[in-house]
Amino acid sequence: MLMRKVKPLLLFISFISIHFILSAQIIPVKNALQTDLAKVIGDYPNHFNNFVGELLVKNPQSTDYKSLLVLKGAEECTVTKYSATGKEVYSWQALMLKTESFDEASKKFNSLYNSLQNLSVHVSSSDFVFKASYERPVEEKKFTSLVFKNSKEEKIPSRLRLELSMEYQLLEWEVKILIYDRDREDDERGQIKEQ
Known about the structure:
The chain has helices spanning 2-26, 32-42, 102-116, and strands spanning 52-58, 62-67, 76-82, 89-99, 119-123, 126-131, 143-150, 160-169, 172-181. A 9-stranded antiparallel sheet has the order 1-2-3-4-9-8-7-6-5, covered by helices on one side. The protein has one domain. It contains 3 helices and 9 strands; from the N terminus they run ααββββαβββββ. The model is unreliable at 22-27 and 186-195 (pLDDT under 50). By secondary structure, it is α+β, with helices and mostly antiparallel strands.
């Protein structure tokens, strides 16, 4: 008699345990970096307007503003407005590390790649899942860039780009995350002017 009551109870507990294990694997948990990046990318259609802070530098073709949202671990975050093409184009960037050590920069680059790979974001009623193939930084190359593309079918907004870069500048390695509006595809031709 006792076995009849214990068996269904054990089955129920097993079922609940398996359900929680499987659902934990399906629901991605975002860390602070991913959560903040999702906020920035979500504001992409507004030209990052919700994160534009104080004016930092005004140049003839661009204007840099301090970002009101600073990623956890970032040294600085900026919003840049470009107006050279006759229309305003915006970008957002986070300087994640500046160091003289190639090894330290390379480790940070790898860590950030792992955080950005499969980043899921909802933008303008479309779901994006960003993916990129990994390219290991090489010290002699001085520049490595990974452009994350939406792995989903939807291409709206199609010009949205998420990029991770590592570059050697002025005796230091800089690791950056960039979010920007790509003007045109590599295989897309510019306007032809009649002469």
